[in-house]
Amino acid sequence: MSESASAPxxxxxxxxxxxxxxxxxxxxETLARIESPSTDPSAQRAVHAQLARRLEPLGYxxxxxxxxxxxxxxxxxxxxxxxxxxxLLVGHSDTVWPxxxxxxxxxxxxxxxxxxxxxxxxKAGLAL
Length: 128
Description:
Strand order of the largest sheet: 1-2
Mean pLDDT: 91
Number of helices: 5
Helix content: 40-55%
Order of helices and strands: HHHEEHEEH
């Protein structure tokens, strides 16, 4: 796709994200308030449940897939477009922060910024 052809798509995406910025921030905060340390694979279930709850009404099918010591959340659209292509988005729901971190380092806002364990890596990315 040429730069001139992609510019309108990029502008439309930016506008769409701006319209939903409060919703994205709220979901990021909800996810960040769920402790999901890497050392406890079962702790990610609550994050997965939040994501499934948000995406199933939008036409996605959620399925948990066990693999090794943990679980993965697989989300796929119930309907596919006619173009024949597909996209794969990959993320993670665990954080390096141990259980109990939120008690001493709670999620908080400062102006337009949201601070807390896992906000940047990667719960904001999951909310998007």
